[in-house]
Structures are given as C-alpha cells and as structure tokens.
C-alpha cells in the first residue's frame, strides 16, 4: 500500500477521518507518542492494526475519545473516582481501564472484559476523533518491539507502506506513553507508569494509589502484569544498551571512560545523559532511534535517580531498553 502523508489542514484532516470511517489506518500525533489509529468498534480495523505493527493479538489497544460523553457507550460502569480523574486530567496523558460494554469488540481489547480509554491532548488527535465520529483504537505507531515514535518521521521509518496515512503533526512533548490506571477495583492502581503520577491521583481523589506489584522490579515469571503490554521487552534499540547508576559526577566520569574504551575498540558509541526526568521522558525514545539510525553499536546511559515518580516512569522504559543491564558505580 502507498501511505499518504497528510498535514493538519482542515482538508487533510477530513481525508484522514474518512479513511478511519471506512476501516483504514491513520497514524496521528498525541501529546505522549504517535498512535496508529483505526475505528475501535470495527474488529477488522483492529486486526489490521495488529498486523501492521506485528503486535501479539493478546495485547489490547487503547480506545481514544474526544468527548467525555462517549464513555457511556464504551464502559459498562463509570465509577465516581474514574469520572473525577477524567475531569481533572483529560485531555491528557492518562488511560483509564473500565469494564467494557459488548459494543467494544474482543479484537480491540485482546479478549479482555475491560477496555482502556483515553482522551489525548493534541488538537490534531481530538479533531481526527471528532471528525471520524467513532472512538479510535490506537497503540503506539511503532513496529512491535521498537521504541515508541515521538515524531512523524519515526512513524514513516517504521510504518511506511503499512498504514493508509500518516498525519505530519507536531513532535510529542510528553515523550513516554500515558499512565494506565485500573479503575475496576475499589482503589485505583497504576498498571503502566507515566507522567500522571500516583501522587497526582491521590491529590485528585484523596485515596491511596499504588502500582501493580508486577511492574515494580525486574520481570518475575511468578507475577503477571495486569496490562498485558508490560510483559513484553519493548523499547529495544538495536545497539547494546548499558545503564550506569550512582552519584552524578561519578557516573559521568565512568561513562566517559567507558565510552573511550568502546571507541578504541572500534565500536560506535552513543552517550545518553539527561538533566532531569522530564527532559529524559521527552528525549529518550528519539535518542534511542537516533542511535540506531546512526548505526551505534553501544549506548551508554546515565540512570535516573528513582527518587520521584516521573523518574521511575522513565526508568521503567530505560531498564527495558537496556534489557536490565544496569551497573551501580
Ligand atoms: O500514550 C499512549 O497511551 C499511546 C498513545 C498513542 O495514546 N498509546 C499506547 O498504546 O501506548 P499501546 O498499545 O502501545 O499500549 C497500551 C498499553 C499496553 O501495555 C496494554 O497492555 C495496556 O495499555 N492495556 C490496554 N487495554 C488494557 C486493558 N483493558 N487492561 C489492561 N491493560 C490494558
Ligand atoms: Mg506501545
């Protein structure tokens, strides 16, 4: 298939919406990462999404809406706490897992009885959803296993010829995928960490909010994550990635030395160091992709001190990228 590259002009957005309405796939910007979207209520569209990404079909898709009133159509229950979070954070980088109605096909939810719903903040995403007139199922618009795309060019690198259209929107400001929160139990629980932190959830709801224990440490075969996607490696660059943790100036010196050693062995070596966790979130996936496109053999990265929740969220991705190859120095 020949992929159409569209702008965010009204005319192009109408073309994109018509593609979604007629069962096709359109990649679009969100404030977190680019998504590969199709009509969430059409099982054939969802199947096409899995095929285009090469994604295992037991890993459910997030359903994107542009209007809170659409929740009732998709969720069998919308508890007060879920509504409060939605009203406080949406449009924004948060996904709520709720019991699903039958109208949401199993092909979209990977056979689960629940559906993950999110209202993204990028104006082009909201416009695409409302012009399409249907909720849009969209995973991150990367080939399965690659880092999530934060620019439309990344989507082109992975999905050219596999999506009907790509909207050439803005670079993503968030840079890591939305926080996924299970709202089906008495208390909220974070299934995938992101920029909306447990502290923020507690501030809004006044109740405790923890993490799914399965996402806290290294993958443990005895603990199955409640978000099926969290069991996959994900985010992997082609280069060998190694993390170094410890006091900043010491880590910086060790990485410099190690980079020199790798280069002297003829290995193309990239170094990743960030000032803070927000900068790391915004740049990590882009930097991993750049390292790959420049043919890096080795990536040496400074681990973030996990003393606050956004750093924990970014480290969740970094550790997966590095295959848990981390050294305390
Ligand atoms: O920021 C984002 O969330 C981006 C943009 C495009 O919105 N989307 C995204 O989708 O990251 P994806 O498919 O790459 O990740 C969805 C995550 C997976 O870990 C999946 O297992 C989980 O959400 N998920 C989806 N539906 C679920 C459900 N019903 N119960 C538990 N986890 C679910
Ligand atoms: Mg993804």
Describe this structure in words.
- This protein is α/β, with parallel strands linked by helices and 329 residues long.
- The protein has two domains: 4-176, Alpha-Beta Complex (DHBP synthase), CATH 3.90.870; 240-328, Threonylcarbamoyl-AMP synthase, C-terminal domain (Rossmann fold, 3-Layer(aba) Sandwich).
- 35% of the residues lie in helices and 18% in strands.
- The chain contains eleven helices and 15 strands.
- It has an eleven-stranded mixed β-sheet with strand order 1-8-2-3-7-4-6-5-9-10-11, with helices on both faces. Strands 13-14-12-15 form a four-stranded parallel β-sheet, with helices on both faces.
- Helix 1 (10-21) crosses helix 6 (123-132) and helix 10 (277-293) runs parallel beside helix 11 (309-321).
- The longest helix is centred in the last third of the chain and has 17 residues, at 248-264.
- It is globular and about 60 Å long.
- The termini are far apart.
- Residues 139-140, 148 line the site of magnesium ion.
- Magnesium ion binds next to loops.
Task: Write the SSE topology.
Blueprint: E1 4-6, H1 10-21, E2 26-28, E3 35-39, H2 43-53, E4 62-64, H3 71-74, H4 80-89, E5 94-99, H5 106-109, E6 114-118, H6 123-132, E7 136-137, H7 152-159, E8 165-167, E9 179-182, E10 189-192, H8 198-205, E11 210-211, E12 240-245, H9 248-264, E13 269-272, H10 277-293, E14 298-302, H11 309-321, E15 326-328
Parallel strand pairs: 1-8, 2-8, 4-6, 5-9, 10-11, 12-14, 12-15, 13-14
Antiparallel strand pairs: 2-3, 3-7, 4-7, 5-6, 9-10
Helix pairs in contact: 1-6, 10-11
């Amino acid at each position: 298939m020949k992929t159409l590259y569209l702008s965010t002009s009204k005319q192009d957005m109408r073309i994109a919406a018509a593609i979604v309405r007629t069962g096709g796939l359109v990649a679009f910007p969100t404030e977190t990462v680019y998504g590969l979207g199709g009509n969430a209520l059409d099982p054939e569209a969802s199947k096409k999404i899995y095929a285009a990404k090469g994604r295992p079909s037991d890993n459910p898709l997030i359903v994107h809406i542009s209007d809170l009133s659409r929740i009732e159509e998709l969720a069998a229950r919308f508890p007060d706490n879920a509504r409060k979070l939605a009203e406080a954070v949406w449009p924004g980088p948060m996904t709520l897992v709720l019991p699903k109605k039958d109208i949401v096909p199993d092909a979209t939810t990977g056979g689960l009885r629940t559906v993950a719903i999110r209202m993204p903040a990028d104006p082009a995403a909201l416009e695409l959803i409302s012009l399409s007139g249907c909720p849009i199922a969209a995973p991150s618009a990367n080939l399965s296993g690659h880092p999530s795309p934060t620019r439309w060019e990344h989507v082109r690198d992975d999905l050219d010829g596999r999506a009907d259209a790509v909207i050439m929107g803005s670079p993503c400001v968030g840079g890591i995928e939305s926080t996924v929160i299970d709202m089906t139990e008495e208390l909220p629980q974070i299934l995938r960490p992101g920029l909306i932190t447990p502290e923020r959830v507690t501030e809004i709801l006044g109740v405790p909010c923890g993490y799914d224990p399965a996402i806290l440490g290294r993958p443990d075969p005895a603990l199955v994550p409640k978000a099926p996607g969290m069991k996959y490696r994900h985010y992997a660059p082609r280069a060998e990635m190694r993390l170094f943790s410890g006091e900043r100036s010491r880590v910086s010196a060790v990485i410099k030395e190690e980079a020199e050693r790798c280069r002297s062995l003829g290995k193309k070596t990239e170094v990743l160091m960030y000032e803070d966790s927000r900068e790391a979130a915004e740049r990590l996936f882009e930097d991993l992709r750049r390292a790959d496109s420049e043919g890096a053999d080795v990536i040496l990265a400074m681990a973030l001190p996990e003393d606050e929740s956004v750093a924990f969220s970014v480290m969740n991705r970094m550790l997966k990228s590095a295959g848990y190859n981390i050294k305390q120095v």
